Amino acid sequence: MKILIDTGHPAEILFFSHTAKQLEKNGHSVFFVIRAKDCALPIAQNLRLKFVSKGSGSYAIFLKPFYFIRALWVLFANARSIKPDVFLSFASPYAAHVSTLLNKPHITFDDTENAKFGQAFYKPFTNYILSPSCFKPEFGKKHIKFDGYMELCYLHPKYFIPEKNVLESYKININKPYTVIRFVSWHANHDLGHKGITLENKIKAVNEFSKHSQVFITSEGLLPKELESYRLTIPPEHIHHLLAFATLFYGESATMASESSVLGTPSIYIDNVGRGYTTEQEKKYNIVFNFTESLEDQTNSIQKGIEILKIGKQEFLERKDQILKDKIDVTAFMVWFIENYPESARIMEENPDYQYNFR
User: For the domain 166-324, what is the CATH superfamily, name and number?
Assistant: First the structure.
């Protein structure tokens, strides 16, 4: 079987990486078309994936239609050459449209409730949509939900073991508490209308957390001069080792909050809309704490961070263990679903509990 995977964000490469490797081990051919956004190229190169780039695109709204056309063409041209039997993506309208043009099935994954613009473009042209069970929307008969998180595709203990020695070269003393802070650029389509944490509260959070821990900042954009000394430059392939040994994660990235939670690190996530998975990770596992972007909530989120730093993370490791006990091995499920499609879709429609064979 030939499989073409279209990705638009660095995290999506990680979502599919172990699935791709297992499929290739099973004798299939897997090829990626990636958007060269942020650290996507280094991640794909480090994982030794077979891929081409469809460019990085632009944050300017008036240029987005031009990128859409270019990306569509790159995907179409490569698909005609590769002749895939199936397209995979994470909510990609490009894969949905090209697969339709070539009369091939498109299986997509989605866990982002507020990405309604993209959903409107891919849903009509997609055969099946797979989402975590905590995903709020319902997309009808073509929608299959599984009991897991996308972050478990690459952070499940079967696929990732945190290593302390990886952090030594970055002068990180893991024997002392440390906080990882993430600021995002708010340029994605689903980020329209969001402003995130104010500059004043960014500085306040760093100052307060510094009283109880080391502080390391990763940021998509520029930092004010007051915070630049806290910036940690770490290769993308090592960021999960950093999160695993942290005492606290604080920031504007839903993915990194969820990554931290499945690694046993308590997380504070700031966003007006939130995500179904971070809501579940708070209500069911009490390991992620969601706050809006209101000034009051920003203040409360800093206080919550101080509270966590004072008590430490030991009890959160037990909550992580419960997550792993409850959830399926998403990668194993994905490999089975793809290899046995379309029969796998019929099985899941008739017996959703079949997924629990993949522990």
Answer: Glycogen Phosphorylase B; (3.40.50.2000)
